[in-house]
Amino acid sequence: MASKAPRLRCLFSSHTSPAPIIRQPFSRPFATEVPDAPTPPRRPTTTFRDRLNLGPSFDDFIASPPSAETSTPTSFDLASSTDGPNSEPPLRTALVGPANRKRQITRLPTWLQTPIPTSPNYKRIKSDLRGLNLHTVCEEARCPNINDCWGGSDKSAATATIMLMGDTCTRGCRFCSVKTSRAPPPLDPHEPEHTAEALKRWGLGYVVLTSVDRDDLADGGAHHFAETIRKIKDKAPGMLVEALTGDYAGDLEMVDLVAGSGLDVYAHNVETVEALTPMVRDRRAGFRQSLRVLERAKGAREGMITKTSVMLGLGETEDQLWEMLRELRKVDTDVVTFGQYMQPTKRHMPVHNYVTPAVFETWRQRALDMGFLYCASGPLVRSSYKAGEAFIENVIKKRKGRRSVAMMDDVREISKAASV
Question: What angle do CA 158, 58, 143 make, to 5 degrees?
């Protein structure tokens, strides 16, 4: 008898009976019934974008055309208002950020808004810069006065600030947006010659040279700076040159080197009052060290004009400003400028307060009363400001004219003595 084949059993089969199918009752909707809206997807967290939205918008930097209904106060309006010259107009506020995290911020005051530069001379100078391969602080720092300095009718009356020795600094001041590195790229040995040739072709009447701090170099870049000035004077003797230098780590011999290179104005910025210097500037800089630089530059050559600049809005007090001006007069500083500090990015020091044009005018008058040769003071004033440079240019030309007359008188006296 044949054996029966064993029954194969599926290991995945279930002995339980299948579950009964439960039919849901069917409901027919009305024709006008609106189905439930789908749940919107959750908004992803965008920390950087939210933080960016908290900052000022593009419209804050553009001055809107004045109208009869909404006229913006000027420094003259503030000074002649019934509330007094020191009264502060209310600042605009706005709610920014995502819907669930609205935050109130203070908008830029109207006196800090500037028009977009569109003049033909501005466009012509900008085109010349690209062709001459020159880099200016005016563009790199997005200076609000670029329309005033470049937008005149005559190119020879324009002013510009040329950046030397690269775009990377060895210091990290909390107010400055320039790139920093312990080991910046090496200097271009042909830069002095190229810069002088480009400025000669450009035909400026007044040029400001500045540079980053180069603590990685033994001389701080002083020889490179001085060589550039000498080249400019050789190729364009009539061009007035202002040098805005660093402190060369306190090496006053380097100050003598730059001051004796043929420049007309020696500028070095103290930036702020002495009490705030450790919090504002790099630790390698110092208020007293800057005073020594200005004093040494003043004594390097007879008739040398020294200049410094100060930012307001960092939390300084009135007594601290008075003390700073007295210290600057002790070292015989000729020119001082005041301007509003503007926070470059969220990583830099915040603005403590916005100073009104009337207060800037008050400090301008106080500086002149203390004996400063010139003071440019205003919310948009920067260390290189065309109005100040025009005044300094006239002073230099008058001094040179008086020296020429004196030399001619000496020659006549010598000729008379020789004839006798």
Answer: 25
In terms of DSSP bridges, do strands 93-96 and 103-106 run parallel, antiparallel, or are they unpaired?
antiparallel
- CA distances 246 to 258, 409, 418, Å, are 11, 40, 49
Give pLDDT tens digits for 79-124: 333 344 445 556 677 777 777 787 777 677 777 777 766 677 777 7
Give the span between the Cα atoms of 360 and 337, in whole angstroms.
10
- 224, 187 contact by CB (below 8 A): yes
Helix axes 252-259, 222-235, angle to 10 degrees: 10
- Counting Cα atoms < 13 Å in the Cβ hemisphere of 214 gives 23
Q: Is the pTM of this model over 0.90?
A: no
| Beta pairing partners, 240 | 206
Tokens of 262: 């043929």
* Length in residues, the chain: 420
Spatial separation of the C-alpha atoms in residues 367 and 141, rounded to whole Å: 27
